Amino acid sequence: MSKIALVVEDDINIADLLRLYLERDGFEVQLAADGGEGVSLFRSFAPDIVLLDLGLPDMDGCGLIQ
Asked: Average pLDDT, whole number, for the chain?
């Protein structure tokens, strides 16, 4: 069974690096560049793990998890 990771990060270089490490460890990775997209992907995929940038352009990462 595949593990799913969601990376919510607006810096594409950081997001790509995290994706590479997670895929190496067997995760299927979904990337979101902002909070709205992150919420949508979270609801669609029910990831096993979420890596969340706290300083997103459209909303605060802490507010996103509430």
From this structure: 92
For the chain, the straight-line distance linking the first and the last C-alpha, in angstroms and rounded, comes to 29
Q: 9: helix, coil or strand?
A: coil
Give me the residues paired with residue 55 across strands: 60
- Burial bucket for residue 2 (CB in 10 Å: 0-12, 13-18, 19+): exposed
Question: Which residue(s) pair with 51 in the sheet?
Answer: 7
| AA letter at 45 | F
| Higher per-residue pLDDT: 1 or 36 | 36
pTM value is: 0.91
26: left (phi over 0), alpha (psi -120 to 50) or beta: left
Neighbour order of strands in the sheet with 49-52: 27-32, 3-8, 49-52
